[in-house]
Amino acid sequence: MSTKRAPVTVNGRRYAWPQQSLVVVCIDGSEPAYITEAVKAGAMPYAQGMLRRGTDRLAHCVVPSFTNPNNLSIVTGVPPAVHGICGNYFYDRESNAEVMMNDPKYLRCGTILAEFARNGARLAVVTAKDKLRKLLGNGMTGICFSSEKADSTTVAEHGIDNALAFVGRPLPSVYSADLSEFVFAAGVKLMATRRPDIMYLSTTDYVQHKHAPGSAEANAFYGMMDGYWAKLEALGCTIALTADHGMNAKTDGAGKPKVVYLQDLYDEWLGVGTARVILPITDPYVVHHGALGSFATAYIPDAVDPGWLSRRTALLPTVETVLTRSEACERFGLPSDRVGDLVIVTKKDSVVGTSASKHDLSGLDAPLRSHGGISEQRVPLIVNRPTSNIAPDAPLRNFDIFDVALNHVH
């Protein structure tokens, strides 16, 4: 690949042209301990060598530590205050409706992927769940499809006909480790046959929601990924790994979900329906987490004193911090028009719900593990090549991964 192409500037950041095919992987829900424990158990021989000879750093993800805000930060190189996607779900005040934020119309800037494609690069994106596909592929020419809908791809919409037949694997269940394995199988096949200049692979955190770091199931899952990374290495790729968020157990001593149902409390304190609690983790895949995460935002009428409500909420034993809209947007880099009057973040072992009657936890077949808070901010940032001109103590974000892989690899 030519190294003489002009750098590409996206959202105020400059990116060098890749010297060899670049594969950026977002491992959904990858608490750093998952890789550490799997390597220690001997389940990841390729990663063991990669960590020794490449770049092994930690970074912080975006808060709320959910899938959509972080994937979009990774592919735009900027926080949600710029790209606009601050959750899976938000309250649209203009339409007085609670809506999924998975439509590209909510995206407020271009992506690194689209800009490189516009400059002539060959691009490929494979994501586990279809909820992300249109956002990641917005404005991009190239191949872009999901494992979930691999049986219905077309050249016109996805850049490839019948991805299922192309990959040669059965269509995986959305609630399975196979959904992520399909992403990697597709990535290796695309790299071997289509040779994209840049490829973005994004998994699902089904396994991490069910199994702790070091468990046999988690080690097997990371061992599976390790094998595909070795194949990408053999194909001459630069491989850059990060995560959209970490993952923690959200249970009490008896293993039951540790939940504060905030809408119920606000209805009791203020009157039914006076305040509106929004959970940005909400998406169609409730078996993973029952729509329970560690981040919520609340809309309150002018008649309610936000200071009083903030102080009272902060006294709840499961709550880590309560911030006003302006405080939260400044601290976390969020768009002010898509955040409520208060932001509530719960502690490492706790989650926040709306009303107990609205959360069906019957699908949880393992102790609740979830994310969304400050406690899930720490994620890996790993490259299979050495890097230079990055200070050992430089604070890194997961959305620095393209900068690290394109501007600092040697």
What does this molecule look like?
It is built from 15 helices and 19 strands. The protein starts with 7 loop residues before the first strand and ends with a helix. The mean pLDDT is 95. The chain is globular and about 60 Å long. Helix 9 (178-193) packs parallel to helix 11. It folds into 2 domains: 8-89 and 100-247 and 372-407, Alkaline Phosphatase, subunit A; 259-370, Domain 2, Phosphonoacetate Hydrolase (Gyrase A, domain 2). It has 410 residues and is an alpha/beta fold. The longest helix is centred in the middle third of the chain and has 19 residues, at 216-234. It has helices at 32-40, 45-53, 67-76, 80-83, 112-118, 133-136, 155-158, 163-167, 178-193, 206-210, 216-234, 262-270, 306-314, 325-332, 401-407; strands at residues 8-10, 13-15, 22-26, 55-60, 89-92, 97-100, 123-127, 143-146, 198-202, 238-242, 248-249, 259-261, 276-278, 295-299, 319-324, 342-346, 351-353, 369-370, 378-383.
